[in-house]
Amino acid sequence: MAPNQNLLVAREELILKSRSFQRVECDFGASKGKFLSESALLNKAVFFAGIEGISDRVQRGNRKIKRLGIPNAALWRGWGKESLDDLIPAGFLDTLHVSFPDPWPKRRHWVRRLVNISFLEVAVTKLKADGVLRLQTDHLGYFASMKDQLSLHGGWIESPWEDDLQRPVTEFETIFREKGDPIGRIAVKRLKG
Ligand SMILES: C[S@@+](CC[C@H](N)C(=O)[O-])C[C@H]1O[C@@H](n2cnc3c(N)ncnc32)[C@H](O)[C@@H]1O
Predict the structure, then answer these.
(1) pLDDT digit string (tens) for 80-95?
(2) Is the pLDDT of residue 174 over 80?
(3) What is the distance between the alpha carbons of residues 116 and 64, in angstroms, rounded to a whole number?
(4) C-alpha of residue 135 to centroid of ligand 1, in Å
(5) Whose CA is closest to 10, among 56, 50, 42?
(6) What is the third-level CATH fold of 5-190?
(7) If you average pLDDT over every residue of the chain, what do you get?
(8) Is-catalytic flag, 102?
(9) Index of the ligand 1 atom closest to the CA of residue 27
(10) Are 28 and 98 in contact, with CB atoms under 8 Å apart?
(11) Is 91 helix (H, G, I), strand (E, B) or coil?
(12) Cβ neighbours of 122 (radius 10 Å)
């Protein structure tokens, strides 16, 4: 598929905005940017880039970031692994978050799930050599599938969930926690090579 020209322009914007920060993280499927803006306030040496498919959520998130005067976060509109590929330069990210992606619980819809081999093939190229992919979901069937896809892909090694940054809860995590739903989480580091 031909690259999305808007995202190629956005890539230059991302490079400029993030260049004075020590680390860069991306939140894929960032919704209205709650996790993104709170992460940015808690971790001022890190730039947080969000990708979200629904324009209205991107606009609301960016308005909030502007209103709060947060210099180290921004959201861009993009859909699917292609948007990750177009927006993020190779070897650019310290961390990529995918939190509570749509679970598509019916078997006939599993093909629509975001976290699969082809997403992982793009993700691995966007992370630095020791970059980390953090996945979380409330759907334990999807969680099992995520782990299967990671091991089929083979380019990852499990890493501790706790790391050296402060991690706020996401918008959907709050909902699932209140319901007492179990949450599957895994962090994996890119294998060197
Ligand atoms: C269930 S919500 C989770 C939002 C947020 N990550 C959280 O934990 O609160 C999933 C979000 O991902 C977005 N999304 C779903 N599929 C996407 C895709 N293929 N590309 C980009 N965004 C997507 C949806 O619009 C929605 O805002």
Answers:
(1) 999 999 999 999 999 9
(2) yes
(3) 32
(4) 13
(5) 50
(6) Rossmann fold (3.40.50)
(7) 96
(8) yes
(9) 6
(10) yes
(11) coil
(12) 17
